[in-house]
Design goal:
Radius of gyration: 31 Å
Oligomer: single chain
Strand order of the largest sheet: 8-7-9-10-22-21-18-15
Largest sheet: 8 strands, mixed
Distance between the termini: 21 Å
Helix content: 25-40%
Shape: globular
Length: 476
């Protein structure tokens, strides 16, 4: 009788129900954790709630790895227990998940336990500078080495101090995968010998080009242009071509080569006759002047710091000039000649407004705008070949100094120009993911409300709920 009475008590029944429900909930939680603990499932069932999707890859990268017909291996030269870059491992996992079995890895290699691994597998002559902590992406015999520096977008303050402003993990891996699986890598030769910028002045641009699967080399025009050259890059020549250099340049262009010419405002009165001889063949002319902009929406602080109008073209079609705006500090104008040539197609790239002026640095004569500040030209060669050039009246905008102060959008226009030249129409530069955190702006009333909510309302609700449960259980 006493046992039967015990079973009939409400407290016993409620206690039993509570025990059963608690046991079921715990069992479900254990089951869910067990399922999610499985490697493949945990990599697929994930939510990236960071503002810029820092731990995820974009659709362009997903489409790339889904379409692979070759296997790509990823090696991390570190023991798994000591490798601490969570962002890299999370991103690599996403490439593996979407790669349909074509992306293999990551393989962790502890060089302390296997010190000859690099020389045996990747660098027998020890000339590639591969170090512990680097990541190697390999497809067949093609390899690409990534270091932590490749994952960071770095800017510099007024005193020359460096700081990280963004992360380029996805950009680096997508570029590496494209590079090792490509049938051919386009090669850009930076030309020197005419007072051009040094490599150290253009390190951010060169990094962007490398990350977009371009091989970078150096040359002069005192010798014929190398056979593997696809594009010649002239970063602000200050002196003219010699006769033999002109011949070598024209020979390269006439066989279908492409070239990018960027000229700053001249500090000397030397005529660039041979350069203009090249440009005239493409219906373009480089002017000896300085352009000033007076439309307030199109300059920054000074009239010579021009925010150019961006013309629609094959180069700018995939770029948004309202977001990827650039400034051209102290620019010269480009003229499009009126001569009609059936085998030429010329289009403007950058320009100034009607409220701009150009001062001829020889005569001091001032002309009214608008002016072209950059132009593109394509020459058909025969029935199946062509040569393309870009002529821009500014080069300072792609130097490290200016991109550190005003952003790296200039490099995106250069990459897009090169993609147009090489007909890489499916290439879009993946931007770095910014580390900037937008400030939380709150009114005085909002701050008071949040304060009362956190200090009073929420604690009282918790206390009240606890009291209600305690009183309820006591009455059972």
């Amino acid at each position: 009788m006493k046992k039967t009475g015990l079973f009939k008590k409400k407290s016993f029944r409620y206690g039993t129900y509570s025990f059963v429900i608690t046991a079921v909930v715990i069992a479900i939680i254990v089951l869910i954790n067990t399922i999610l603990g499985l490697s493949d499932i945990s990599k697929r069932l994930r939510f990236d709630i960071t503002q810029d999707k820092m731990f995820s890859i974009g659709q362009q990268s997903i489409d790339l790895v889904k379409g692979l017909d070759k296997e790509v291996e990823i090696y991390i030269l570190s023991s798994e227990s000591s490798y601490s870059n969570l962002l890299v491992t999370e991103v690599v996992d996403q490439y593996v998940v979407h790669g349909n079995g074509r992306i293999i890895g990551p393989h962790y290699v502890d060089l302390d336990k296997d010190p000859t691994f690099i020389s045996k597998n990747f660098d027998p002559d020890q000339v590639k500078g591969i170090n512990s902590g680097d990541i190697i992406v390999r497809c067949g015999n093609n390899t690409r080495v990534l270091s932590n520096q490749d994952f960071m977008e770095i800017s510099y303050d007024y005193y020359g101090g460096a700081y990280v402003t963004g992360l380029k993990v996805e950009q680096a891996f997508t570029s590496a995968i494209k590079s090792v699986t490509a049938e051919k890598i386009n090669t850009i030769y930076f030309v020197s010998g005419h007072g051009e910028y040094k490599s150290d002045d253009l390190s951010q641009l060169r990094s962007a080009l490398s990350l977009n699967n371009y091989a970078l080399k150096e040359t002069t025009l005192t010798v014929p242009v190398p056979e593997d050259a696809d594009v010649l890059f002239f970063p602000s020549p200050t002196s003219d071509l010699l006769g033999s250099e002109l011949e070598n340049l024209l020979a390269f262009l006439e066989r279908g080569g492409d070239a990018v010419f960027l000229f700053d405002v001249q500090s000397t009165i030397q005529d660039l006759t041979n350069f203009n001889e090249v440009f005239s063949r493409y219906n373009l002319q480089l002017n000896y002047d300085l352009v000033n902009e007076f439309s307030q929406a199109n300059y920054l602080k000074e009239n010579w710091m021009i925010r150019p109008m961006v013309y629609m073209s094959d180069v700018t079609r995939n770029l948004n000039p309202d977001q990827l705006f650039i400034y051209l500090p102290m620019s010269r104008s480009i003229s499009v000649m009126s001569t009609n040539k059936d085998n030429l197609e010329v289009s403007p790239l950058f320009g100034s407004t009607d409220d701009s002026t150009a001062i001829d640095l020889n005569t001091g004569v001032q002309s009214m705008g608008p002016f072209f500040l950059g132009a593109l030209s394509q020459m058909e060669i025969g029935t199946s070949n062509h040569s393309r050039i870009a002529l821009i009246g500014n080069c300072t905008f792609i130097t490290d100094t200016y991109m550190s102060e005003l952003g790296d959008n200039g490099s995106r226009y250069i990459v897009s120009t090169l993609n147009w030249m090489q007909e890489r129409v499916d290439d879009v530069m993946i931007p770095a993911k910014s580390l900037d955190q937008p400030p939380l702006n709150m009114t005085e009333q909002s701050r008071v409300f949040v304060f009362i909510l956190l200090i009073a309302v929420i604690p009282l609700v918790i206390i009240g709920t606890g009291l209600f449960v305690w009183i309820r259980r006591k009455s059972l």
